[in-house]
Design brief:
Shape: globular
CATH topology: Maf protein
Number of domains: 1
Number of helices: 7
Helix content: 25-40%
Distance between the termini: 13 Å
Strand order of the largest sheet: 2-1-3-4-8-9-10
Order of helices and strands: EHEHEHHEEHEEEEEHH
Amino acid sequence: MLRFVTTNEGKLREAREYLGADAEVRQLDFDTTEIQADDIAAVAAHSARQAYRHVDEPVIVEDSGLFVDALDGFPGPYSAYAEDTLGIERVWKLAEMESDRSASFRSVIAYCDGEDFAATPEPVNRERRGQDQAADERATATTDDQVQEGDLPVKIFEGYVPGELVAPRGEGGFGYDPIFEHDGTTFAEMDAAEKNAVSHRGRALAKFAEWFQER
């Protein structure tokens, strides 16, 4: 059995589609402590370790964000906060002032099952708040920019969709979908099937499913 840490039924259905009935994916409603980090892989890995310790069963955590090149990747891991506080139109106004409006949606799936495997090295967040310092002290540095907690390895799978920011168009989707254009169409102008076909989350899930089936 695999536990997916999410309260989103749509994400759960998508995971089941990619992993198949044999994987027995079940929802886990668990409020992890999200760290302050500038990389979504580090955020997802930390949450995966917390969730595994909570249920003592294999878990996956998904984290995603919108990364705008001209804004040095902002809002990135702070996408939900920026949407809530600024709103998508103000994010678009920031990007509108730039000549380069290229952006990407990125998704990360983090897997932890308490067993040993070749974990994915993670970026070190050197500005992490105090509650996360103990975890850093237990970590073993592999390079100046990567860490791995030896007792709980985590495997990372990433999905990526390139595009650019545009003035809001379309009535569908959610979040930043109206201002993110891929191949001439915003995510908000796509129907569910069209969006799922290029989904950053779907691409990450596909990579994970292939690895998980072999595992």
